[in-house]
Structure formats: structure tokens, C-alpha cells
Amino acid sequence: MRQPQAPIARHEAAHAVVAHLLGARIRKIGLSAESQEEGLANIDRNGVSLDAIRQILFAGSLAEIKCRASARLGCSVVFDVDQITGLEQVAYEDDFLEEHNPAVAFRKAGNQPTTFTPTQGNEFSDFESFCDSDLREMTARGDFGRCLREVIGRLDDPVVWGQVEVVAAELLKTGTVSAERFLELVAPPSPLLGS
Ligand SMILES: [Zn+2]
């Protein structure tokens, strides 16, 4: 059976992997023992650009949605970057989430379009944090779209998604991943140590 925490593990792992790619330092990642729906990615964002902060933030919800979409559809999926209106509405139209269940557009193998409508209720948590913080005030809608496409491109990169999967698997196994362990997990395989 699929572990209930699997999408949350992807969520936290994606915050960390994207943060690492953008030069931020990971302190620790963990799942919550009390809640199936919570985790934590402790990231040092000092000296990181506003654009990077936004990408690190959005990576969590986007990875969780991608993971749930893939599980529901029974196949791997990539985001449809030409159709991000639903996500823009979540971020820029007040009360949008209360009144709608936005569908997120994906593409299956062979470029076939499909959609996934999240139903858990807190898949959009990072976008809600964005709306509740000063970040939205500081982000023009055009910049939001550009940032979203950029982080989607990262998550749909098979190498990056592979790193998210590896870190998430470790989280599901042990509950926490330390800074040192994280760096080991995302390090490229050394040719000298290959079989
Ligand atoms: Zn998050």
C-alpha cells in the first residue's frame, strides 16, 4: 500500500532539493510524528534572492500536487507549463480556493493532456503562505508566472525529480534527513566508486 505520507515527503524533499540548486543551505528536513499532513524543511535562506525564495516556497506544493496527480492517474506526469492560470488564480484572486477546486494541467506520456484536481485541501499550502506573507505584495503577476514556470521546469527535470524521490524515500524510512545526509543523497554518483 502507498504510504499516506508519501506526498508530504515529496513536498518537503522538493523544498530542500530546489533550495540546494539555488545555493541555499539545508539545515534539516523531517516529517511530523504527530501529523500525517505536516513536515518541515529547515533551510537557511540568508543571502538568497527573492526569486529563489519564491521558487523554494512553490516547490513544495507543486511536488506534492505532481506526486498526487501521478498516483491518481497511475502514470508519471509533467506539468503543462502553458496552462498555469489555475495556480495564478489561487495566488492572486482572494478567496479563490474557498470557492473553487482549481484543476492543475499536466501531460502524460506521449504529450497527452490531462488534469488533476487536488482534493485533500492543503496541497496549496505554500501558495496560501505566499498570499499571507509580504511576498505577494512584492511579486508582480508576471514575475509570479515566470517563477512558477522556472520551478516547474526544475521539478520536471528527471535528474532533479530523481533527487526529490531519493530524499523523500529516506524521509519515509527514517523520518528526518540531516544536512550531511542530504548532501550525500543529492551528490552526483562518483565515477570512481561506480560498480
Ligand atoms: Zn511547503
Structure description:
It is a single chain. With about 200 residues, this protein is an alpha+beta fold. About 50% of the residues lie in helices and about 15% in strands. The chain is built from 8 helices and 6 strands. The chain has helices at about 5-20, 50-75, 85-90, 95-100, 125-130, 140-155, 160-175, 180-185, and strands spanning about 25-30, 40-45, 80, 105, 115, 175-180. The strands form 2 sheets. The chain has a 3-stranded antiparallel beta sheet with strand order 2-1-6. A 3-stranded antiparallel beta sheet has the order 3-4-5, covered by helices on one side. The mean pLDDT is about 90. It binds zinc ion.
Estimated structural class = alpha+beta
Q: What is the helical fraction, as a range of percent?
A: 40-55%
Low-confidence stretches: none
Largest sheet: 3 strands, antiparallel
* C-alpha Rg (nearest Å): 16 Å
Bound ligand species: zinc ion
Query: What separation lies between the terminal Cα atoms?
Result: 32 Å
Give the ordered list of helices and strands. HEEHEHHEEHHHEH
Query: What percent of residues are in strands?
Result: 5-15%
